[in-house]
Amino acid sequence: MPPRAYSLHDRSVSKPAMRIAPGRVSVVLGGLGFLFLLLLLRALYLQVAQQDFLQNQGDARFRRSMTLEATRGVIADRNGEPLAISTPVQTIWASPAGMPEVSETQLAQLARLLEVPAAEIRSRLADKKREFVYLKRQISPEQANAVMELGIPGVAKQQEFRRYYPAGEMLSHIVGFTGVDGKGQEGLELARDAMLSGKHGKRVVLRDRRGYIIDDLAAIEPPKDGQTMTLSIDRRIQYLAYRELKNAVEVNKAKAGGIVVLDGKTGEILALANYPSFNPNNRMRLDPEMRRNRAVIDMFEPGSTMKPFPVAMAIESGKVKPGTVMDTNTYKVGSGTVRDTHPKPVMTVTEVIQKSSNVGTSKMALMFPPEQMWTMYDAVGFGRNPRAGFPGEVGGRLRAWKNWRPFEQATMSFGYGVSVSLLQLARAYTVFTADGHLLPVSFSRVPAPPAGQQVITPDTAQKMRDMMTKVTEIGGTGVRAQVLGFNVGGKSGTARKLVDGRYAADKHIGLFVGFAPATRPRLIVAVMVDEPKGGSYYGGTVAGPAFSAVMGGGLRVLGIEPDAPANNTLIPVNQIPEIREET
Questions:
Q1: Among the four residues 183, 268, 437, 445, which has the most C-beta atoms within 10 Å?
Q2: What angle do CA 354, 360, 363 make, to 5 degrees?
Q3: Taking the model in full, what pTM does it have?
């Protein structure tokens, strides 16, 4: 029988079966299982052993904790006028670790907008391990928006605040200034930093690789803004004080100067200025000497401005009266001799103050043992920190009484051998304006006049005011300190400066400290002119005119009624004879 022919399309033909060896299947399944086990172990390792590391790496790249800046508190004067305010600004930063390479074109555009050299920006972005670098801080919102419009991945902005001082150099030594981080660095900005700073808030966000915020990862902690600080300063009087002090320093070709204005009833500091000064809004080229708050931190020997205190002690004890006549011829004390610049054989106690007699003051001081005189000086605040709440306040120098020799006690009665600050000296004069009480001084407003510490009786304080009024009348050393419409009491002082342990013949400090209206005192003004070289160096001549201008303007600002006769007139300066006073 012939063989059967098969067609390619014959479906009855069966294909040969494919067989897989059982061993091969086991190998494949085992391999897959092993790989799965490795993946599982790797996942467990990453989830357990490496969880913190991976979490930190993820957070470093995409999680950001943003500080929400608190607005720093406003510093205002007693009438609400702003002296320091914070204005919003923008800061540009970048995250080099998550940034692609920045093209040269983008780098040039960024450098141009930020006004920073391109090489400096390139250097900051070079370290790819860094997660955060500042590119430019505290720029205007318009400038920051222009930067963000470049669309450079990894470059972002955040809001900060920059401090602005409307009064500029006029108040720089009081208010001080802050650094770029908003922390107080000098003045009341430093002393009251905690009060002004407030508390920053926080926002935790998730960012994409381009730096854009995707989501908040926690509840937002809002910032708590700083408190407003209202000072005792009156900006109007401060303007007068700074203007007149600057004029006194420049006219007298002096090295420097300081001025303090106190409320004679409350001890509030209404003005305090120094010259030279500086602009806290622009500190690019700042001489450290300009930053010295001389009225608070500099010590000097006060000369004859010290004389009212031993005289008050003598009157308080009953040993003398204003009309008591004293022998004021040259006075030998121990190994030294006390002389007057313009000697007279006899003077009343009132004339001792009016004409600034060293001899008369020394004799009254030596009526008492050293301990009693030391107690008087200590009671009016000499040798003690005035505690006005200002950084760097000094307590002056008052040596222990056990070490005093008679001649030293005599010279300390007219301001040599004891050192004070101008603020201390102004404060001491509150015993004459507050009926014998030494008042605390303050840069903050006080709700009511403080009680103070009783040093002398009201009757003694009244007698001293009457005697010190004679200083600004014809024959006194401070006629240039008179004020139109007001009776003025005070004391001039001229002291040689101690240089390398010796008193220099050509370096002086000119002073005038006084109060008005003398019949019901309201203001105390203390003026210090350091090393005048304009021809005269006497306190009544170099400091008296500035005192007069500030006192007169301050009384008008406060609306104080005149206490002098209606026909009261000022003597023209060119008709006032200069009374030469050493100490």
A1: 268
A2: 150
A3: 0.83
In this structure, of 127-131, 409-413, 416-420, 556-560, the range with the lowest mean pLDDT score is 127-131
Average pLDDT over residues 357-370: 97
- What mean pLDDT do residues 275-296 have? 89
> If one looks up domain 235-575 in CATH, what number appears?
3.40.710.10
Q: Cα 51 vs. chain centroid, distance in angstroms?
A: 50
Contact 374, 328 (CB under 8 A): no
62-96+162-231 placed in CATH 3.90.1310.10: yes
For residue 517, is the peptide bond before it cis, meaning its omega torsion is within 30 degrees of 0?
yes
Please tell me the distance from the alpha carbon of residue 250 to that of residue 240, in angstroms, as a whole number.
16
Looking at the chain, the domain(s) classified CATH 3.40.710.10 span: 235-575
The residue count of the chain comes to 583
14 is catalytic: no
Task: Tally DSSP H helices, then E strands, for the chain.
Answer: 20, 21
Would you put residue 261 in left (φ > 0), alpha (ψ -120 to 50) or beta? Answer: beta
Quick check: 360 and 316 in contact, CB under 8 A? no
Instruction: Tell me which of 304, 357, 362, 442 is the catalytic residue.
Output: 304
Q: Where in the chain is the domain with CATH 3.90.1310.10?
A: 62-96+162-231
**Cβ-contact 315, 463 below 8 angstroms:** yes
Sign of CA dihedral 364, 368, 374, 379: negative
Q: How would residue 355 be classed by pLDDT, with cut points 50, 70 and 90?
A: very high
Whole-number Cα distances in Å, 323 to 320, 361, 555: 8, 14, 31
**pLDDT surpassing 80 at residue 368:** yes
